[in-house]
Amino acid sequence: MSVPAAVVAAMRATNERFSRAVAARDIAAFDAIYTSDALILPPGAQPIQGREPIKAFWQSALVGMDVKAAVLEAVDAELLGPHVFEIGRGVLTVGAGQQVAVKYVVQWRQEDSLWKWHVDIWNPNQ
Amino acid sequence: MSVPAAVVAAMRATNERFSRAVAARDIAAFDAIYTSDALILPPGAQPIQGREPIKAFWQSALVGMDVKAAVLEAVDAELLGPHVFEIGRGVLTVGAGQQVAVKYVVQWRQEDSLWKWHVDIWNPNQ
Q1: B126 to chain A nearest CA, in Å?
Q2: What ipTM is given for this predicted complex?
Q3: What mean pLDDT comes out for the span B40-64?
Q4: Do B121 and A103 touch (CB under 8 A)?
Q5: Residue B37 burial (10 A CB sphere; 0-12, 13-18, 19+)
Q6: Of B39, B104, B124, the CB nearest to A44
Q7: Is the Cβ–Cβ distance between B80 and A85 less than 8 Å?
């Protein structure tokens, strides 16, 4: 089923929140991006469960990769039961300006009136 | 919602079909693994849409990586609307016996009375 326009707008707001949080290295902002019991499956690492460990991962990853910016774009999204299944692509700007293209799948859930990432897996295009 | 036992069994059969297809390099068997309009998001490559291009990818990847065996294990699966969302892990055996651990998310759909992979994204643990 297609995703209601209000949910699409809420999803876009969360993705823009992620872009701002990355640019500002504002890890506290991730509270409004991931659900409390979210799971991430990062390339080159074990799965990480729970928002606090996920925030620690991103703190380390943003500094370690010197991520300056992140832009996400939904390619396809569908409502599956009470949740949303999204396929997307993104570009990270790292270091002196290198662009890293990635693709991802996110399962979205509503929590505290926000739409957040509940399961998040991605990998690089190159 | 939890996945009905009959669907769990059908999913396991598909995963075992994948293991046999990989071991035998039997690309034709992928017709019973991926839906006709499936999408895969492989690490180090662009997204690939459609079963025939996906079969060409696997033909090349199995030979190129010299994959000898693949074992998949569901970690979590839930029924979302008419489809299934699965989080899993796998081990590929390549070359002279090196083990490559991966994790994945698959959206499953029923097609031709089989449960098949409709969206498939994975990445390595190391």
Answers
A1: 4
A2: 0.96
A3: 97
A4: yes
A5: exposed
A6: B124
A7: yes
